[in-house]
Design goal:
The protein is mostly beta strands and about 325 residues long. It is about 5% helix and about 35% strand.
């Protein structure tokens, strides 16, 4: 069982940014457009803001979460040239067709290994990465993780590629566009591993030096043993999901993960820490009482800030690292 070893202040209220402006990014009366959290939000090298989201055709008579997740739709990106105030529909670029459920259905009929493409520069703000799962995002045994990358700030995207499973029975990217870069230039990102009979995925770390190869590096949390307190069924706990990694200035790697006791409202954010570049991990802290998945950002005035959307009770923002930061952020968003 995990325990915090120092006194942690609680009861901090959500902090509203009174300077925030609200603008419509995309809206259609016959589509459900959502999930920007794990489809991506980036500030590219030319100052453009690029947002990724899913758009699913619907007449709004059935807006059940699971039905919307499984309906055919597509993942797209859209661009703003004025800091997010206006968004150009003409800039929309499709990234993934959600009706694809097998490698044979990919454009070209198979995974493209990018062998004829130049290396990716993961330190560039124009290098964007997006991924998911086949046959779907939260699929289990036998699943494959697809990934696409852009080297020009989201204007064009490399062909679909499937990540190697490295003998894991199933692998999917958890929809995250966030990756982190170590001081030696190695890119790290979180992946869900799946196994037959497992009630929940296992968050693991993949690494790549230049986008040529993607290798398994380590697992963020221990495997969860079978327990009568996790009975299974539709609302079986997914436990640890949605790993987001950030590299601090002193080389420590932090991963924010959602711990799920029950997906109907009992979940919170935990922070796990690696002191050896993502190879091995230990539990560090719990960010909040309850809340949605967190995005971790390296800050100039604090080690790291984790932010979540307001959920069943409250949002949270915490300093979860202690080292000062300098230069470019260690996590790309």
């Amino acid at each position: 069982m995990n325990h915090t070893q120092q006194l942690v202040p609680t009861g901090w209220p959500p902090r509203r940014d009174e300077t925030a402006e609200h603008h419509i990014v995309y809206r259609r009366d016959d589509e459900f457009a959502a999930w920007p959290y794990y489809c991506g939000l980036w500030l590219t090298a030319d100052g453009s803001v690029v947002a990724g989201f899913k758009r699913v055709p619907t007449d709004y008579r059935d807006i059940d979460h699971y039905n919307l997740v499984r309906k055919p739709g597509e993942i797209v990106v859209i661009r703003s040239d004025d800091g997010g105030r206006t968004w150009d529909d003409e800039s929309i670029v499709p990234v993934f067709d959600m009706s694809i459920t097998s490698e044979a259905e990919l454009p070209g009929g198979a995974s493209d290994e990018w062998t004829d493409l130049p290396p990716l520069d993961f330190t560039s703000r124009d290098t964007l990465v997006m991924g998911g799962g086949i046959p779907r995002l939260m699929s289990g045994d036998g699943s494959r993780a697809w990934v696409r990358a852009s080297a020009d700030g989201g204007r064009t995207w490399r062909p679909h590629r499937l990540l190697p499973n490295w003998d894991l029975p199933g692998v999917t990217m958890p929809g995250t566009s966030m990756y982190a870069v170590r001081p030696d230039g190695v890119m790290l990102f979180g992946v869900h591993a799946w196994a037959p009979g497992a009630q929940n995925p296992l968050p693991v770390v993949y690494a790549s030096e230049d986008g040529g190869q993607f290798r398994y590096l380590g697992q963020i949390v221990p495997e969860a043993p079978a327990s009568p307190f996790w009975p299974g069924g539709r609302f079986a706990s997914a436990q640890h999901i949605y790993p987001r990694l950030v590299v601090l200035a002193d080389g420590r790697v932090l991963a924010s993960v959602r711990y799920e006791r029950d997906p109907r409202g009992l979940f919170w954010v935990e922070i796990h820490e690696s002191l050896d570049g993502g190879r091995t991990w230990h539990w560090l802290s719990r960010v909040n009482d309850w809340g949605h998945p967190a995005t971790s950002s390296r800050c100039r005035t604090a080690g790291c800030c984790a932010s979540t959307a307001i959920g069943s009770r409250r949002a949270a923002a915490s300093d979860i690292g202690s080292a000062p930061t300098r230069g470019a952020p260690g996590g790309r968003r």
